[in-house]
Amino acid sequence: MFKNTFQSGFLSILYSLGTKPLQIWDKEVVDGHIKRPQDEDIQSNVLEIIGTNVQSTYITCPADPAATLGIKLPFLALIVKNLKKYFTFEIQVLDDKNVRRRFRASNFQSVTRVKPYICTMPLKLEDGWNNIQLNLSDLTKRAYGTNYVETLRVQVHANCRLRRIYFADRLYSEEELPPEFKLYLPIQTLDQSWRWLLITIGIPGDIAAHPRDNRVVVCDLPGYPLTLI
């Protein structure tokens, strides 16, 4: 899909304020809904994915099941709101052994499990809005000992609210982000609602908040200590 596109900086695949935010996505809804309500915290429209069963209500990109994204940028960011319900998302990547690997993060799982074709990881979100950032190159290297080549597919399941999903060539601080990639919150909710969650590998059992900028950096695979970067 983007394989022959020059890729640098940022590449957005979902923006809730876009005219057609799901233009390149497919959706599946069973006993739930996918709507675009106004979020009370950021006072603008967001994409809401709600379902009784997280596995049966989701959005997936690309829309064509036979297509792949072909995105080589190694950082994936999801600006997501914690609705205090079960939530999971999954990324499928291709490594330099030409093997498709999946990374699945869930807030209802407590242990990291690495299997030949899928790595499942626990996810803990702060209250309110979170910026989840995954270093896909690092994840692939640490989980499988191989090199990340490209992302093939992104799938986000219930239950959450989304502002944007994008790829980047490196990790950017909030100050470095373009204005349209920032989440602007009212002053009174800024401190308690906006958090950075950097997933380096494993995704959390425990979390540690960075004392300077409230970023949350997590890592819990055996042998890989919790680190702040």
TrEMBL record:
Pfam families: CFA20_dom. Residues 1-184 form the CFA20 domain. This is CFA20 domain-containing protein.
